Amino acid sequence: MNLLDGKLVSAKIKEDIKIEAAQFTAQAGRKPHLVAILVGNDGGSETYVASKMRNCELVGFESTNIRYDVDITEAELIEKINEINQDPTIDGLIVQLPLPKHIDPDKITEAIDHRKDVDGFHPINLGRMQRNLPCFIPATPYGIMLMLEYYGIETAGKKAVVVGRSNIVGSPMSILLARNSQPGNCTVTLTHSRTANLKEEVLSGDIVVAAIGRKNFVTAEMVKEGAIVIDVGINREDSTETKSGFKLYGDVDFEAVAKKASWITPVPGGVGLMTIVGLLKNTLEAAKGAIY
Ligand code: GUN
Question: pTM surpassing 0.90?
Fold first, then answer.
């Protein structure tokens, strides 16, 4: 078993981003600037946004976290997004999901100018990604592709099974793996809660991407000998063992699956760190005007 080490790869790529950010700052007279909007106080979202902001500072970006109470209206939120869309000193805008029930996430996603949509969730970016055109790629799938690229893993012709069809991970991941690119050129099966014979489907995968949000869902019996296993799960459980008061578990039963896998990502220390890298790369590209 070989480890796909998110700690190592993210640190290397962040060094490159830092150099490019300094070059941008010297030329433009300002830093690349990411704004993150956080509504309410969901524990997971608070942690993720804080980490995004901290990493922006680390690579020399400016970052702004705008916080709203859970009762902000959809119209008020859209008004703020419109204001940021017009602000030339802001390069990237993300609205952390999930949002409270009275706010439609699709309306919010479409309100963001696609040229500042560094989450890559806007339908324009999604459509352009499907066509292999320049676009912002959603951060988690982007980070996974960067990790496969870093380790030079040959994916062409392989059977990839993605477990979970979310807009944020599973669905875009299936598109990227099927695209005519390296990494890519896989034969992709996108599985979900209504898939028949899920175990057999996963067993057929040379590459398995687990993104269902259920602790230890993928067991050793579901994985082919020699498979490449990517664990996107970040399942939080309260724990007295850690300083933070919680412990993270992946969607994959790491101990058992690692014995069969040729490559595997750990949790923590795997995909989560690469997601941040995907977001930072998109923000830098937005600042440089490299895509739009
Ligand atoms: N919630 C979980 N993952 C993400 C992400 O990548 N971006 C945003 N905006 N919200 C999320």
Answer: yes
